[in-house]
Amino acid sequence: MHLTLDLDSEVPIYQQIRDRIVEAIARGQAKEGDPLPSTRQLAADFGINFHTVNKAYDLLRRQGVIRINRKSGAVVRRDAGSGPPEAPFIDDWEERMRVLLAEATVHGMDREDVLRRCAAVLDGFGAQA
Known about the structure:
By secondary structure, this protein is mostly helical.
C-alpha cells in the first residue's frame, strides 16, 4: 500500500493518514487480515512524529477499520467483503455525509451533479451498483 500525504495541507496529517488507508482498503489495495506498516516505520517514511501515526491508527481502531495487537501490530479488520456494517457506523457515516451534501448545496451543486460525482467516486473503488 502506497500512501501520499500533503504535509502543507490544512487537513491534519493524522486525518490524511486515516483517509488514505480507508481509500486504499476501499480500492482493494489492502484486505482484511493484511498488516499495516508499524507506526514508527510510517512516521520515519514521512519524517513525522510517530504519535501522529498513532493518532491515525487509534482513530481507525475506534472506527472498527483496523485492530491493533501488541505483538503483530496494526492489521486491517474490515474490507468491502467483511459483510454488513456494524450499527454505530451507519449513524456516524450519515452525519458526515449530511455535512458534505450541505457543503455541495451551499456551493450550488445540483442533485444530478452530486449523484453523478458520487457514482464516479464509488466506481473508482470498484463498488457495485
